[in-house]
Amino acid sequence: MGQKIIRFSDLTGKHADDEGDLVRIVVRQHPDLEDGPVEIEALAGELTGVQDVALDLVTIELHHPGAAEPQTVVMEAAAFDGLASAAPMADLLRGARRVARTAPSQAAAAAGTRERVNYSDLEHAGKPHKGRITDAEKKLVQQHLEEINERLAAEGIRTIDLGNPEHVARYGLEPQA
User: Fold this and answer.
1) Which of these three, 96, 113, 130, is where a domain ends?
2) In terms of domain of life, where is this protein from (predicted)?
């Protein structure tokens, strides 16, 4: 018996006819991101124009006296550059004191200790992921489809669409479709 792996865009749920059309996207920062960077895939055509709307951003840390942790601020580079009035920001940065690098970055440390997600758990069932859908995940999705779709929508993740043949086949939802 053979197996067929169906690949689809995490952004739109559209089927990828050619695996070479998929672009790997690593999301490093997002207001809804809780446990470090995540990886999704999208069709190359869905990302047309992304570079055109990209912003020039600066990430800074504010170390206030007496504060236990620094405050991280992300702002547009032009607004940050406007803070420098004594000299152009480019000159100020070239002459600034270097910050000593510490042990491996927090992101790298978090990625190394991240636990595997159990998609057979109601908390994660139905989320888009690579790999095969286990019978346990299929059963959870079949039994709790409405609840899972509510959670997925609240998390800003694509919901499982009974009108989408790929979703129906992926989760064994033929009787419900």
Assistant:
1) 113
2) Bacteria
